[in-house]
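Structure, all two chains, one model.
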Amino acid sequence: MTNSFMVLEDDDIFMELNNKIITKSGLASSVDCFDYAQAGLDHLAKLAAEGKLFPDFILLDLRMPIINGFEFLEKLKAFPNDKLANTKIHLLTSSLDENDIERAFTYEHVRGFHSKPLSLKKLQAMVAATDVIRPGKI
Amino acid sequence: MDPTLDYDTLLERYRDLQKRVTKFSSVEQDLINTRDRLDHELISYKRLHHFGERALREISATGFNALVTEAIVDIFEVEGALVHFRNKADNSSSFELEGLGSGLGTDPAFQSAILHLEERLEKDKVLLLETNDLSADRKLSGFSRAMAARFEDTVSGCSLFIMGIVSREFDGLYPSFSPKSQTIFGIFLKQLQSFFANRIRTEDLRKTNSELDSFVYSVSHDLRAPLLSLQGIIELIKESDNLSTEVKEYLEMADTSVHRLDNNIREILEYSRNARLKVTPEQFSISEMVEEIFSSLKYSTVQEVKFINEVEPPGSMSTDRARLKVLLNNIISNSVKYRRKDGVQPFVKFSMEQTEGRYEMKIEDNGEGIPEGSREKVFDMFYRASTTTAGTGLGLYICREIITKLHGTISLESEVGKGTVVTMVLPKNHQSMAKIKSNA
C-alpha cells in the first residue's frame, strides 16, 4: 500500500497509539506525526516548496493548544487547492458535540469524523471509504 | 430642535411618525406569556405593552393611586398632563426615566417631544407609542399634551420610548390625561422596571450558563481523553500474540469498565447540555438520522438485530436536531440492549406519522419488555428496571427531559416477553423559528 499519513495529535499516548496502529496496519507507506498544528503546517509548507505531494491522509485532533483543529483547517485554505486535491482529512477527536461534527463537514477536504481512539477497523474504513464517514459508523 | 415649526407641519410629522411606530392594539395576551419570553426583547416589550392595555381594562381608576403608592418608581408629580418620573432606586440603577413634559400645540415641549420621537426612531431598537386617535379625518384643534417616558437599558443598550398625546378636540377644554392613561403609564413603569431588573439577572445567568457549558465541555473532554486512550491501549494489547485466556478475560473486563465509564460521562454531558442549551430547531432528514443511529448500533451486539426504518427518505422534519438524536439514540439503544435472547430474531422498528401540528414517532421492539411495576418509573432519574445490565439510570430520564424541552410527550406500552412500543409526540410549532438548513 502506498498511503502516506500525517498525524496531528498533542497527546503523546494517542500519538503513540495512532502511530502503532497505522504502522502495523500495513496500509501506510509513511507516517509523519506532529504534536502541534503549526509543526504540521510547516511540514506541508516544506512539501509545497519542494514540489512534493501532500499526504494522502491527515488525521487531525480537534482540541490542541495554540492552533486547534478548526484553525488548522482554516489555515489549510492558504495552500493551493491542487496540492490538497488528493488529501483526505479525518478528524479524530473525543468531542461529542453535534456542532463540531456539522462544522467539520463544512470543510472541503474533511472526509470523516471519528471518535477516539483510532482502531484498525476505523483506519481500514478511512482507506476504503468512497463516502464521508460520520461518527459511530464503524 | 427647530422651534419655528408651525402646527400643521408638526402634525404632519407626527402622523408620519404614527405610521412608523408600534401602536397599541387590542390584544388578549396575558402576562404569563410575557414572562416566558422575557429574553426576547422585542416580543416582551410588545407584550408588556399589551399587558398594560389589558390592565387598563381591569384596573379601575382608583387603582392608579394604589399603583403610585406601590410602584418602585415614583410618579411624583401628576399635574394636568404633566407627569414626572423619578426612579426610587439608587443611582446605580441600570435604567433611567425621563419625563418629556407637555405642551400646547405648537409649544416647545410638544414640539420637543415630536422631534425627540423622530430622533428615537433612528436610534432605538424598539419604540412604542400610545396616543389618542389622530387619524386624518379628525381635527386636532390646537391644544395638545404629551406625556412621554424613555427607558434605557444600559445592559443591552436597548431603549424604549412611550409617548402619549391627548388633544383638545371639540369641547375646547384644556386637555388632561385620564386616570386610565396615567394608570397605563404607571403599569409600564412598574413592569418595565422589573423587566430591566430581570434582564440584569438573565444576563448574569446567561453568562453563568455559558461558562458552565464550556466547563462541562472541557471537563467531559478532559475526562474522556485518558479513558479513550486506555480503550486504544486495551485494543492494542488484545491484538498481541500469546495472551493467556486469563489475561484476555481480564482485558475484556477492563474494556467493559472503560466503556461503561465513558457512557456515564456521555450521559452526564447529555443531561447537562439539554438542561442548559437553547432549543434550536432546524430542518433535516429524519430518515437519515435513524439510519445513522441504526448503523452505529449495528456492531454493538454479537447477535444480529434487525433494524427497520419505515420512514421514506428523506422524511424531512424540523426540530432540535441534536436533542432529537440523543432522544432516539437512547430509546433505540435500549431496544437493542434489552433485545430478546430466546432465539427469535430481535428487531427494532422506527416509524413516524405527521399530522397537521405534530410528529408522532414510534419505536417498537420485540424485546424482553418492562415489568408492570417499573413502567411508570423508567423515566425517573436514576431508576433502573434491570439488574442484569449496567447503567446510570439516566438514559430515559434524559429522554423525558428532552421531550419536556421540546414541548412533546413520551409514553410507552410494554409486555414482558413480547416487547415495548415507545411513542413520542412532538409539536411542529418550532418550525416557524427554524433555521432552514439545506441537507445538500
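Chain B has eleven helices and 13 strands.
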